[in-house]
Amino acid sequence: MSQEIDPAALQRQLAALSDEQKTALLQRLRARQGQQNRSQAHTEAPLSWAQARLWWQQQVEGVHYKYNMVSAYELLGPLAVDALQRALNCVVQRHRTLSSYFAQLDLDTNAQAAQDGVINASNVLVQRQLANFELPLPLIDISHEASPQATLESYLVDESRYGFDLTRGPLIRCHLYRVAEQHHVLQLNVHHAVFDGWSKALLFKELALAYAALLQQQTLALPELPYQFADVARRQQQAHTQRDLDFWRSYLRDIPALQHLPLDFPRPSQPSDEALLLPIDINAEISAGLQAVARAHGCTLFMVLLALFQLLLYRFGGEADQVTGTPVDTRQGDAERQLIGFFLNTLCIRTPINPEWRWPELLAAVKQSVLAAFQHQRLPFEQVVEA
């Protein structure tokens, strides 16, 4: 038989608790919430909008390696290979998105669920967990090759071009190459759909902690995750975004379809994935000068560099309505910063350029545009395009 709760009495009981008792109660409540969230994360969850875009893209283009995030790290000194593999799996088990794959629900066989609103167009694509997944770590000994370094580079390139199938999984692979007795290279290859730049730094941080703990036969001292990336994707599907949609419709209304830049070669009829990086070194003196400009105008360094970039495009192309896309990390709060996952979104920064402006006026316009866009950064770019 349930007992009716008196809110006033409950409030008096809470007020009577000491600070230590309140702290203990809060910890128990957080632990209970964490258990509920972890239980929920075991069930299938919808894809985030960005994940869904990559899934649809694979259906059109086929399996490809262009969204692989590949890293290679030299490990010098004695190496306990078994402990390294166990440490890797500690991280994979902690972040379940690393053992996920994507599936498409059959609405014909789930007609009642679709009618009840459990399945709809936004969650017909789901992420599931591979059962009892353990990440293998193949050890490839190239120490006896005539040119171990050349052999290593060949292996690294070949693995970087491995095509992940989002519908099968796993979406993570690791290889360990033995170059010499105390010289190893660990290669990590993860599909972008479950990984980003922040995730890479977090993974190797936790990997180092887990490896050290295993070598010392200690328990891994990492806080329990309050929830998983799947829960973030689920909340994204349920978020109310009308205010953000209204902003982006107005912000991007009548944007130019193309930048009319003077090109060396004609644009191809179909865009390709071929590209090159052009690294640019900025010396300490110029860097300090840019930082000083940012401080003087109450801006960030990003705003200063974006203003310079848009001004450069204006001078070459003559387009006074500048729209620049930039990737942003959408993690908010300490809890999400503990998670591995695909937290990236694309923001369009639009700046109208007046040829009569001086530098302070241009920078003020860019600052205003950046701040406005970042206030609505959580709305997925895919929804912006559909709007």
> Termini distance?
51 Å
Percentage of helical residues?
A: 40-55%
Instruction: Sketch the topology as an H/E string, one letter per element.
Output: HHEHEHEHEEHEEHHHHHEHEHH
Largest sheet: 4 strands, mixed
Low-confidence runs of at least 5 consecutive residues? 1-6, 35-42, 116-121
How many distinct beta strands? 9
Number of helices: 14
Shape: globular
List keywords for this structure.
globular, 387 residues, 45% helix, three-stranded antiparallel beta sheet, alpha+beta, 14 helices, single chain, disordered N terminus
Structural write-up:
The protein is of the alpha+beta class and 387 residues long. The chain is built from 14 helices and nine strands. The chain has a four-stranded mixed beta sheet, with helices on one face. The relative contact order is 0.13.
